[in-house]
Amino acid sequence: MIRARVHGPSTPTPVLRERRAVSARWRVFCDEAELAVECARAAEAIGLTAEPFIAPDAIGACRAAAADGSPCALALAAPPSPAALVQLAAAARAAGSAVPVALVAGDEASDRGRWLAGDLGLVAVGEIEPLLAAVALLETRTAHPWTASTRRLSALDRKRLGDDATVSGRGGGRLLRADEGRLGWAARGAEPTIVLGPPRAVGEALRACRLRTQAMPPARAVMEGVDRAAVQEVIFGPPRALSDPASKAALDPYGLPMPVEELCTSPSRAASEAARLGFPVRISLASPDLRLWDHADLAVDGVDNAARVRDVYRQIMAMASERQPDARLLGVHVTATTTAQAMLRVVAEPLPEGLVLAEIGFADPHGRAADDRTVTVLPASVDAIERVLGRLAGAPLVLGGGASARRAAVHAISDTLLRLAAFVDEHRAEVERVELHPMALLLDGATEVREACVTVGDAFLRTLESPRSLGEL
């Protein structure tokens, strides 16, 4: 059983000036001077008391300020590392504060960093104006600003906000026109007291604030009853990438769903196992040096008789020997045939605070060519995983069909990811990376890890070089 547990600025109105005079001074840490200048101008335009700082380690400075409980925000041109975002989110969470973060490069790395920041509970946006709009929304001291009424806005302003920026509710105040095309916020029955910014920036800020409340609290994936000694026997050793059979042997005690398959080292054994499993079968090379995701022609589907199995075995081994003469060839896998509706690629790496970074994308040629992938942190709830999968351009391949099919697929993927997170977290000293490529989503909604690669670090060498080990020698 596995479970997750917590281990040219305009002049503001007089009313606005009065409110800003007593507001907190927000420090905005920037990694480039241009961002600091843009931040200062945009803050002055909406009457926000913000003080930009340029710091070589902007995210480290923001983390220190957040840990002290100081109102702070972050604007970065260079995407931060996932570990740095985890540490910033941990500092903000410990202080009970919200930290708006803008990753403004506009490239894929920044997009994924923004997704990760949002999943960690940071208020993540993509530009300076939404960043300051988020700061202004936090200044309202409103628990759920996305529930603000939009009745006083024109139809065009509501479109600019976005249909998903607000939800019907009470207690979120009112959004209305302020000045020069900007939107303002007011408590119900009061005049505008805070200018937020342009409608599109406000919409992005509202979505980011809403996403922050959906982020999971810090947790660790825990699996009971695992024979960890058996896992250590497989993964302990010098730095290396384990073969597919060894990787599956390490992951199997954690209950990751594996296909029905046999490793065969001769043509006759392959034919015998194929007959036992039932035709047709899949024949694929087993080698730590020639991965099937790089050499798709070293696997053959739909082999439907024993003679064909023997021929395919010889052909695959010959092609592999010719392609890389020094490759370690363990034989072939004979696998029972299953039909997939989607082929996913999952890469997991350990992060601080007991978390695991997961990159999820498509393993089929079209998905790889489109670079259709996203990132998140594990463990995560079923609802969070569904939101993460929804960020993929090919999401209908996974989340399509009726409600029951969608629910079955999300639950199966979530369970597999949770088990993977437990493995990576509990063996973070030895394991640097795990790749499931592909993880098949079957037609019945179940998942199947068709190929895996566990990359082991230098924990074994560090153990040998420790003073205790040297003394024992």
Descriptive terms for the model:
five-stranded parallel beta sheet, disordered C terminus, seven-stranded antiparallel beta sheet, alpha+beta, Dna Ligase, domain 1, 473 residues, disordered N terminus, 41% helix
Describe what is shown at a glance.
The chain is an alpha+beta fold.
Topology:
Elements: E1 2-5, H1 14-21, E2 26-30, H2 33-45, E3 50-54, H3 58-67, E4 72-76, H4 82-95, E5 100-103, H5 108-119, E6 123-125, H6 128-139, H7 155-161, E7 174-177, E8 183-186, E9 194-197, H8 199-214, E10 220-223, H9 228-235, E11 240-241, H10 244-251, E12 261-264, H11 267-277, E13 281-286, E14 299-303, H12 306-323, E15 331-336, E16 340-350, E17 356-362, H13 365-370, E18 373-378, H14 382-390, H15 395-399, H16 403-426, E19 431-442, E20 447-449, E21 452-456, H17 459-465, H18 467-472
Parallel strand pairs: 2-3, 2-4, 4-5, 5-6
Antiparallel strand pairs: 1-10, 7-8, 8-9, 11-21, 12-15, 13-14, 13-15, 16-17, 16-19, 17-18, 19-20, 19-21
Helix pairs in contact: 3-4, 6-8, 7-8, 9-10, 11-12, 14-16
